[in-house]
Specification:
There is one protein chain. The chain is α/β, with parallel strands linked by helices and 473 residues long. The protein folds into 3 domains: 265 residues, Alpha-Beta Complex (Spore Coat Polysaccharide Biosynthesis Protein SpsA, Chain A), CATH 3.90.550; 78 residues, no CATH class; 105 residues, Jelly Rolls (Sandwich). It has 11 helices and 28 strands. Strands 1, 2, 3, 4, 5, 6, 7, 8, 9, 10 and 11 form an 11-stranded mixed beta sheet that branches. α2 links the parallel β2 and β3. α3 packs across α6. The radius of gyration is 24 Å and the shape is globular.
Length: 473
């Protein structure tokens, strides 16, 4: 039985404005009707796979459970990192959690934001690597390169190894992301594979590698897991001990030092969707090289990606060549595809300006559903709020604002101080400043309402919570 370990704590800033710190790319529907996280969970499921172990951050814990539920999966465990410390501590925490039940358990570690179109080919490749992993080796997966890519790290195979083999091969060394000339040379050499960041090993083997090469991290992560708190089905790693773990990748901490390494070649297609150029490439451009979303139109364009991510917002490109244009309700990106990896610079520039668009999506996802601001004025704000079936907001009050709720879809169960009543479509209710109130959806379909806030201070920190089913402070 293989235990999938899905890592989903990254921020995905190179796919801004669709991917932001508040809702990174693994949870977005970049390639079809499922998110990358959901597609990854499906890929690593079925016969021969145990339920997944998820390692993520606190803001995403309910997104993880909701998205898993939509693909009819339940996690074996969900580990909550107090802060992101890169992949090495995350993988070690998962290994320590798995080894509690079975030290010999096989772990397949994978990022949750990659695209692998051929699931059956990938599963077969994983199975081919199982004997080496069971024998105690650390198996890393290398992808057959199709172009001189500068955005990936590489794996140089040892002399005599076969990059097209159907069994694990010996590794010579890891190679950092190259410049264009070096990437072309490695492609021509024929003995290099892209480093996919996917690993297969036993829990016992990877823990032994950490004990040998990163003993201090073992102490920190073990202490953090030992004193972790159980919270609504999540495991919250203890923050003080966790902070003592080095902020380092698994490659630097372990893989570049370990002697029991093997590389499993994979040639059936893979992408980490690391930038918009990669999204364009994986989206099957038409005969003119264009990719357009439903709300986008290309006129006399070539090799161009046009995506409107907002319903009702039409994006039109005329006479464009080699351009990426991504439109959202609050931000627009226009860039030459050759500069796609510089999008992080735009995010940094917006952070410097104090622009909320750098990290925050217009739609704010919460455990109970989501909301978005439609209009913001000096002393008022209008929101659309969507509450999932059976979900409830916290019992709360506000110091500085009153609220008016108008139900436009479904039925709301509303508590105002000691009064509880049902509000149906086209009905409204007023919540005075200071009143203790709660909104619930007792129905079986999403409930939608329009909220009008008025007052001297309208930010989200003006909330006093008295009771919350999601245990938020």
């Amino acid at each position: 039985m293989i235990h999938p370990i899905l890592l989903c704590g990254g921020s995905g800033t190179r796919l801004w404005p669709l991917s932001r710190k508040s809702y990174p790319k693994q949870f977005a529907k970049l390639m079809g009707e499922e998110s990358l996280f959901q597609a990854s969970a499906r890929r690593l499921s079925g016969k021969g796979f145990a339920a997944p172990v998820i390692v993520t951050g606190d803001p995403f814990r309910f997104i993880v459970t909701e998205q898993l539920a939509h693909v009819e999966q339940i996690a074996q465990s969900i580990l909550i990192e107090p802060e992101g410390r890169n992949t090495a501590p995350a993988i070690l925490a998962a290994a320590l959690a798995v080894t509690r039940k079975s030290p010999d358990a096989l772990m397949l570690v994978a990022p949750s934001d990659h695209v692998i179109p051929d699931t059956s080919a990938f599963t077969a490749t994983v199975q081919a690597a199982v004997p080496r992993a069971q024998a105690g080796d650390l198996v890393t997966f290398g992808v057959t390169p199709t172009r001189p890519e500068t955005g990936y790290g590489y794996l140089e195979l040892a002399a005599g190894a076969d990059v097209r083999a159907d069994s694990p091969q010996p590794l010579a060394r890891f190679v950092e992301k190259p410049d264009a000339a070096r990437a072309a040379d490695m492609l021509a050499a024929g003995n290099y594979l892209w480093n996919a960041g996917i690993f297969l090993f036993t829990a016992k083997a990877i823990i032994a590698a950490f004990e040998k090469h990163a003993a201090q991290m073992v102490q920190a992560v073990t202490a953090s897991l030992k004193t972790a708190n159980a919270d609504l089905g999540f495991t919250r790693l203890e923050p003080d001990a966790w902070a003592k773990a080095a902020d380092i990748s698994i490659d630097y901490a372990i893989m570049e030092k370990a002697e029991n390494l093997a590389v499993m070649p994979f040639g059936a297609g893979w992408s980490d969707l690391g930038d918009w150029d990669a999204v364009w490439l994986e989206s099957a451009p038409d005969t003119q090289g264009n990719v357009c979303s439903d709300n986008a139109t290309a006129i006399d364009c070539t090799d161009t990606l046009l995506r409107s991510e907002t319903d009702g917002l039409q994006l039109v490109g005329i006479g464009l060549e080699n351009i990426v244009a991504i439109a959202m309700g609050d931000a627009v990106l226009v860039a030459d595809k050759s500069q796609a990896q510089r999008v992080k610079e735009a995010v940094d520039a917006l952070k410097f300006k104090g622009a909320s668009q750098a990290i925050q999506l217009p739609r704010d996802y919460r455990p109970w559903g989501w909301y978005e601001s439609l209009v913001i004025g000096g002393r008022f704000q209008v929101k659309r709020i969507v509450v999932n079936p059976g979900a409830a907001l916290s019992l709360q009050s506000h110091h500085h604002r009153s609220e008016h709720w108008i139900v436009v879809e479904g039925t709301a169960k509303v508590t105002i101080d000691k009064t509880v009543k049902l509000i149906s479509e086209n009905q409204s209710v007023y919540i005075p400043l200071g009143a203790v109130h709660r909104m619930e959806n007792p129905g079986k379909v999403p409930m939608v309402l329009i909220e009008v806030q008025t007052g001297s201070y309208l930010r989200e920190d003006d909330i006093i919570r008295y009771e919350d089913v999601y245990a938020r402070s």
